[in-house]
Design brief:
With about 150 residues, the protein is of the alpha+beta class. The chain has one domain: 2-C-methyl-D-erythritol 2,4-cyclodiphosphate synthase (60s Ribosomal Protein L30, Chain: A, 2-Layer Sandwich). Helix content is about 30%, strand content about 35%. The protein contains four helices and seven strands; from the N terminus they run ββββαααβαββ. It has a five-stranded mixed beta sheet with strand order 4-1-7-5-6. Strands 2-3 form a two-stranded antiparallel ribbon. α1 packs parallel to α3.
Length: about 150
């Protein structure tokens, strides 16, 4: 068994789209980022890579490379899954915590979990999804933390 951990955070700015778990979430603000700024998928990508000592998202997809400007984070996640699979890794379970003050995420829980299930090839009960607020400490900020359990 292998365990991986990843986290990501971005400042939020007016007028940018907010992508979470591969979905566009209605919001007046979104992540300031080189890519689409999908913090949960970035955290999951790092968690997968860390489980096999493969570095992190910045190593594979540096923000200094114009190829990744505005890239969808599913590309990063799929590459991490490919590299893990090449090493015999099989994803068993993920636990993902998203810290965001606004918008409220509970109305989007089912859609987010279903999209993660599709992206990761896991059943719904293999995806733990937790939503938290910063309690006003970082209202213009999103953070995601991910733990993954793999065989291999």
């Amino acid at each position: 068994m292998r365990l991986g951990y990843g986290e990501d955070s971005h400042r939020l700015v007016e007028g940018k789209p907010l992508y979470l778990c591969g979905l566009l979430i209605p919001s007046p603000h979104g992540a300031l980022a080189h890519s689409d700024g999908d913090a949960p998928l970035h955290a999951l990508t790092d968690a997968l890579l860390s489980a096999f000592g493969l570095g992190d998202i910045g190593l594979l997809f540096p923000d200094t490379d114009p190829r990744w400007q505005g890239a969808r984070s599913e590309v990063f996640l799929q590459e991490a899954l490919r590299q893990v699979g090449e090493r015999g890794g099989k994803l068993i379970q993920v636990s993902l915590a998203i810290v965001l003050d606004q918008p409220k995420l509970s109305p989007h829980r089912k859609a987010l979990q279903e999209n993660l299930s599709r992206l990761l090839g896991l059943p719904l009960d293999g995806i733990g999804l937790t939503f938290k607020t910063s309690e006003g400490l970082a209202p213009k900020h999103i953070q995601a933390r991910a733990v993954v359990l793999l065989e291999g």
